[in-house]
Amino acid sequence: MRVMLVLALLIMMILLTGNPSAAGAAGDAVDAFPVEIDGKPLSWSGTTYLEKGRILFPARDLIPALKANLHWEANDKVLRVSAGGAVFSFRPDYYTADINGQEVALDVPARNHDGRVYVPLRATAELLGAEVTWEPTRRTIVIKGGQGTPLSAGAGSPGVRFTAEELDLLTRVVNAEAYGEPMRGLIAVAAVILNRIGHPYFGSSLKDVIYQKGQFLVVWNGQLDRSLHPEVREAMRRALAGEDPSNGALFFYNPSRSTSSFWAGRPVTAEIGNHRFTR
User: Less packed terminus of the chain by CB within 10 Å, N or C?
Assistant: First the structure.
């Protein structure tokens, strides 16, 4: 009973914090708790594994349940996943997934165990546009929105994909601009940057938006190197999944520090923490 309680607390911590240092040795076989996708229980064969705090799940059971197709290419040793016009490629033991030619970083890679391919449960579900949470009352992993629709980069830029380098840059800009802000404030700042992509007044790519002259001072004053806020990665995940507490804002500022006339008359879409958001 004590072992089960410890495992329950461990999995809850993993799912809610996403802390890869929260669990033990790589590749440990574990008895996973029930998994539910859009209200329906998911059954699977074989076991599951725990690596660096992430659950590795049998690909052939998880991916079809998320309404996506999979194919193992034995010659190239690549697992192909197709959904909504996008093609994902997982290579066992590689810390990236390829999505339509662009690489996305993974906390843990896909693995081969006993002739089967196992993929990181949370990362795979989120790449397919789903949300993963832990429900403590039923001790169940809950996945919502598994519709085979690949993750987009926010309402302002549907279908945009980022490289691992771009995601790291975005994370560091949000961290520097909104360090110490509440979770909603972190998400809102990330959403503002994403909302700018493709807008006629801003750049057509993430790098163009971030490096646009006069926009983000933290890019030039060395603050990108500061230690990461403990919640910034979760905020990034939620913003990339389309969450936008800024309500479509294109700008944010701290009214106690900035008194520029530029802000006069602009509609305020949200006020979160120390920031005011506007269009």
Answer: N
